[in-house]
């Protein structure tokens, strides 16, 4: 009885502290908030902002500086005797600063900005998809703990029932109506129950630790997980974030196709160059002079060996690949939903049978209790019937939890 006393004290001590109630919805919210992958949202946002600034800077004036010193083996000379024009120095020097301003590029910058925004949205949605897929992992841990809670409650009920029977058996032994060792058999079963309590508690500690790491928040093993209430709508509508991701990937391809279509459009730039050198712009003046030029420049890549066309064809193939992925995703998701619907119906039928079995087991156990009090059956026979009832009640709880798990996964699979 020392073991029983130890667990009673442990139970009493843990009950002193308020037990936190945790819902499945709270777990979903925590994993979406605290999972390390969430940090990538801000990183991608910052990276995208920098990339947008780089693209925008292409429309700003661009300044370049160039300096050179050369020595020529031969210079231009005026073949007129006594002209008074001195020949140029063979060593020549020039430093220039050129300012280029983009005037027109066919909308390439705006198209590039749209493509970068489309990429950013697709990357953000991919993170949401990865976080969404963690919900099934949360479900597995959550309902495993929930099942242990139910088993613990059943064990406590079995423990209480045995305690009552032990008192009655001891009284029967005292008056000689029951065999002397009958109470010992029941006490052995009581010790086994305490071992089962210990096993459940250690399992809960392990599962709570894993769940806490996943959620990024410590969930104490003393916490009570709430039974979720599901209302399901069996239809063909799928609202998964993956479908939004596929659409954004298509938008991304269209945006890049627009960029490619504008890469070969004419570009007009205005420029201004100022410099200092020997000679300056006047090649006949053999001295250091300042100079400047201003003007317009047209750049048009007329022929690119169909590279632009091939890039656009490649993008169209990518679009076909994405559309094929959508088709595969819808097919696999619908197959999974159908399997889950059958599983739900199976669990519901099992539960109906479980209730019928338990009612019969209760009647059998009631009769066994009476027979034990009157010394008709042994304690071992009584424990068999008590264990049968406990196992059937455990089956009921297991099927109930399995039903909740399938329903939770169905909601995640469907995206509702």
Strand order of the largest sheet: 2-3-5-6
Q: What class would the helix/strand composition place it in? A: alpha+beta
What portion of residues belong to β-strands? 5-15%
Q: What's the total number of strands?
A: 6
Ranges where pLDDT stays below 50 over 5 or more residues in a row are 1-17
Please tell me the overall pLDDT. 91
Overall 3D geometry?
rod-shaped
Oligomer classification: single chain
Q: How many alpha or pi helices?
A: 8
Query: What is the straight-line distance between the termini?
Result: 52 Å
Main sheet: strands, sense, barrel: 4 strands, antiparallel
The percent of residues in helical segments reads 55-70%
Overview of this protein structure:
By secondary structure, this protein is of the alpha+beta class. The chain has helices at residues 2-16, 24-34, 39-57, 108-174, 182-215, 241-262, 307-373, 379-414, and strands at residues 21-22, 62-71, 91-104, 224-225, 267-278, 289-299. The chain contains eight helices and six strands. It has a four-stranded antiparallel beta sheet with strand order 2-3-5-6, with no helix packed on it. Helix 6 runs antiparallel to helix 7. The radius of gyration is 41 Å and the shape is rod-shaped. The two termini are 52 Å apart.
What are the SSEs and their pairings?
Blueprint: H1 2-16, E1 21-22, H2 24-34, H3 39-57, E2 62-71, E3 91-104, H4 108-174, H5 182-215, E4 224-225, H6 241-262, E5 267-278, E6 289-299, H7 307-373, H8 379-414
Parallel strand pairs: 1-4
Antiparallel strand pairs: 2-3, 3-5, 5-6
Helix pairs in contact: 2-4, 3-4, 4-5, 4-6, 4-8, 6-7, 7-8
